[in-house]
Write a structure and sequence with these properties.
Strand content: 25-35%
Low-confidence stretches: none
Helix content: 25-40%
Number of helices: 7
Number of strands: 19
Largest sheet: 8 strands, mixed
Oligomer: single chain
CATH architecture of the largest domain: 3-Layer(aba) Sandwich
Mean pLDDT: 97
Radius of gyration: 19 Å
């Protein structure tokens, strides 16, 4: 869990993913000598802060968004949400402005106005994130930002054995998206890939439970193409990996913009379920993490 702990401690709210992109680049350059295939790294201003790892002759692209929810400091001590953080009075936020490091406390009024308590004014526009308190017990891991550092972790864990595939680390998913249209064009025109997997974290609900396996989503706000889902489910059954099926009427991911693009992408959201979504205490079962990694390994070999 040390790698996951490091990922959760890197601040990377939507629109400010540069530090995490740099962490991933350094991780790849440090470890690729031990991987089955040394990936080609696609990055630069033409991709903004997004990062693509190309292994062999890729047939399938797996997407994981790097960004998290958080807060922007506004006027008169007010905090403006980035994405949809589930914040409560007493939560601790951290960040830094030109006057130095910040550790402040959240106050949520009865009117749901979010402000901070700190001995001095914090500069407008400063980005604040949850203070990370990473805990790993026998059954669970708990931390802020498992959504979606766990999706990123999943791709890094499959990279050492990956022979053919694209691992795509994306930006701005939590706050309305925006990176995928550019990436969709680049990926389709460069690699002619149409098969995708969404390495993201879903929610524990009435029908999706901790410890019952990685969740394969049959639908959320969007509906993937059934022919592609049927292939995924057949391979999942062949893999022997424990999984559960998710059917939801709301929620979305990077898949929303893939489906809306002018390119013929098929997609399937596959991720471990978590409790405490978008809070400082997101919670995921260790067995579901293992199942997520093992299923992605199987699918990227066989799709």
């Amino acid at each position: 869990m040390n790698l996951l702990k490091q990922l959760c401690n890197v601040p990377a709210t939507a629109g400010d993913e540069g530090l995490l992109r740099d962490f991933l680049w350094k991780f790849v350059k440090t470890n690729e000598k031990n991987w089955r295939v040394k990936p080609k790294i696609h990055q630069g201003n033409f991709l903004q802060d997004n990062l693509i790892l190309e292994f062999g002759k890729p047939r399938t692209a797996a997407f994981a968004h790097m960004d998290s929810v958080g807060f922007t400091v506004g006027y008169y001590n007010q905090l403006i949400p980035i994405g949809s953080p589930q914040v409560r009075t007493g939560d601790t936020l951290v960040g830094e402005d030109r006057l130095g490091p910040i550790t402040c406390t959240v106050v949520v009024s009865e009117e749901s106005v979010i402000t901070y308590e700190f001995p001095r004014a914090i500069a407008r526009g400063t980005v604040l994130v949850y203070q990370c308190n990473f805990r790993s017990s026998e059954d669970y891991v708990e931390s802020c930002y498992l959504d979606n550092r766990l999706g990123v972790y999943n791709l890094l864990k499959i990279a050492p054995e990956l022979e053919n595939g694209l691992l795509v680390f994306t930006c701005r998913e939590e706050h309305g998206g925006g990176a995928i249209p550019m990436l969709a064009k680049y990926i389709y025109e460069t690699f002619s890939i149409t098969q995708t997997l969404i390495s993201d974290i879903t929610w524990v609900t009435a029908g999706v439970r901790h410890g019952d396996g990685v969740a394969i989503s049959l639908r959320d706000q969007g509906i993937p193409r059934k022919n592609y889902l049927d292939r995924i489910l057949l391979l999942a059954e062949e893999s022997g990996v424990q999984y559960q099926l998710e059917v939801e009427s709301s929620g979305s991911s990077d898949a929303r913009e893939l489906q809306a693009s002018p390119y013929p992408f098929d997609w399937c959201f596959i991720g471990a379920p978590e409790g405490g979504v978008h809070s400082p205490n997101e919670k995921v079962h260790h067995d579901d993490i293992k199942d997520m990694i093992n299923l992605y390994k199987y699918l990227l070999r066989n799709l």
